[in-house]
Fold each of these.
Amino acid sequence: MLRWILESFKMLGTEELSYKIKKYERLAEVADLRVSILTLAAGDEVPWHRHSHVKDQFVCLEGPMQVDTRLPDEIKILEPGNTFEVPSGRPHRVTGVDDGPCRFLIIQGVGNYDFISCE
């Protein structure tokens, strides 16, 4: 089912990120909701940040991947098919396990998107 959904979306293009990763693909965007696929090469990361209004729903496509969170501190390892949600306001970062590569779908909403660095 997930494969069909991903193949049905027309790519909306890429956008400039404040950090470097292998690939960023926007699948869909409407007011208050974004769906994207991020591909991290070995050593890449989505650095520590939080969002004021949106929650992040992660779906691991290729991995394993790691989501680190603060408040409280937690490390969540996701294998392909696993999901994890980070509520708005909670600092988090994403890497591949042991700095390896990973690929994941991320659904961000509902609300205005922002990226607040927590370095």
Amino acid sequence: MRELKFRVWYDKSQCWIYFNLNKGFTDFGLKLYRELIVNGAKFYQFTGLKDMNGKEIYDKDIIKCFPSGIYGVVEWIEQLGTFTLQTIGNEYDTTVYGTQIEGKNITREVVGNVYENPEYL
């Protein structure tokens, strides 16, 4: 079973908070989760993929593709039920999946995310 992990961008503190739903919540974790929902925090899901350096890839990450050098933002597309890579400054889209070897994506690298690295956008 794929790990159900989420990260939350919390505008109030300008930081990421991570949750792993497979491990459940402590009382503190559940209280914090409810507070985040009430305060309109933004939740983003783990894609189940790792980049070439073993870093987990989440929705709203900025990815660099190799060997093309194209940058893109990971986006969940509800109608397709999948994550895609919306390219930045190019006329076509590409896949977030790339080439997988031994659990790592050898053609994708996480270089940031849309909140902390807007310079890529």
Amino acid sequence: MTSFWLKAIISGLLVAAASALAKRSPAFGALIVSLPLTSVLAMIWLWRDQTPPADIASFVQSTLWYILPSLPMFLLIPLLLRRGVAFWPALVAGCGLTILLYLATTALLSRFGVRI
């Protein structure tokens, strides 16, 4: 259980640092969070937990397929905020769009035999 808490603390500190940096420099904060730190940390944790390489490879490939449908969220939320929509509704709309695109991506990929 100590390993879990260590992972949680390290991961949480990275997110907290990125949000603190974003207050001072939105562009630099955005650069930090745009890095695939979460994915890289997850890969490191999986490797450290002696996960078989094939399972890590599957995780990384699935991550790619889930990144693509999440990108439109980063267009929709700023668009809505600039048009006067409040933060929470804009965030919910962006997350809702992402969920719909996840479902569509999963369905589309399954037609081509790709299982994520």
